[in-house]
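Observation: inputs received (chain + nicotinamide-adenine-dinucleotide).
Thought: call the complex predictor directly.
Action: predict_structure
Action Input:
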Amino acid sequence: MDKKIAVIRGDGIGPEIVGEALQVLDDVAKLYGHEFTYDDVDMGGCAIDKWGDPLPQEMLDKCVASDSVLLGAVGGPKWNDVPGPMRPEKGLLRLRAGMGVYSNNRPAKIWPQLAAASPLSPAIVEKGIDFIIVRELIGGIYFGKHETVEENGELKAIDELTYTESEIERIGRIGFETARKRNKQLCSVEKSNVLDSSRLWKKVMHKLAEEYPDVILTDMLVDNCAMQIVKNPSQFDVIVTENMFGDILSDEASMITGSIGMIPSSSLGSSSCGLYEPIHGSAPDIAGTDIANPIGTILSAAMMLKYSFDMPKEADCIEKAVSAVLDAGYRTADIMPTDVEEAQKCVKIGCKEMGKQIRLHLRKEK
Ligand code: NAD
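Observation:
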């Protein structure tokens, strides 16, 4: 199969981690007889420097015209003082909205080899951590009006949060469908004791539940959910929630699995053209040092193969190669065990070497 992939390397560690993922994709293409072509897209700080815009229209057009998009990360201190609409992250929000990808799927799964890297106690980790957060991606407070006005001699900042029934219904369906393919338990997370948008969220979810009698729907307030994720994560199968709550909870969920560097994500709308990215940011503190973990990006590429290109065997091969590399004791700095004895059983390697090891194991796993 021939597939055209729009590639956004972005800022900070973005070019390093995407470089490794592309080499993995090249090897998969050779092993399974596919042809992947890459179309480079500037987005984020690098696009501001080059074009004066975090996502010029022609770059967005390239993404929409591709079979899918692979993204590293954008942003960094260099662009912190850029005015709001021109910030690197605005490019990302425009990309998600322009591609119409309203559903962000973030798995939180502990790799057994990394149990010692989880900050949770072994008694909690032993019960297992394997759930998915389905986050609404192109609505809510991130897409509302933002303004700062002067009132009574002081500044007042306003961020608008809205959701329509149809916006909630389409993400709710993804939540129910995802749960249906797993353990059939859906937890809808909101703040209905305070927010009108959350009360509407809850009402729409319960109406939808009538169409999915095989799925058990529960409700949870977001503050309780933040606590339950660290106290008893094994209770969750699928969590469905709005944009900002999902952003925060998925970072928390990633940390209990060991490292933010391990977690991939997929964002999909009504077409098969998806956006695939690790959930972390551009990690400017470690950029250019070859210590970033490329696994989240490599697993994002695997998700692309599975969900957008219908290549489950190829995706599986990548996942098995990652698992085999972890079995062999290879670790980037972020997933090294903190315990001295455990650390002695591992080999600390950099970003490039991790990519190379995964490629070596691909051949064995096919
Ligand atoms: P971050 O995720 O970039 O970094 C948080 C911490 O995790 C840092 O200590 C970093 O070194 C570490 N880390 C992140 N990814 C890692 C990896 N692959 N391997 C090893 N360690 C890793 O979050 P931040 O520091 O809050 O944000 C930095 C910049 O990234 C900001 O400009 C922010 O706006 C941007 N950002 C971009 C995205 C995106 O592009 N999707 C997402 C979040 C943040």
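Thought: report the result.
Final Answer: The chain has a mean pLDDT of 95. The pocket of nicotinamide-adenine-dinucleotide is lined by residues 13, 17, 73-76, 89, 92, 260-261, 277, 280-286, 292-293, 296, 334 (CB under 6 Å).
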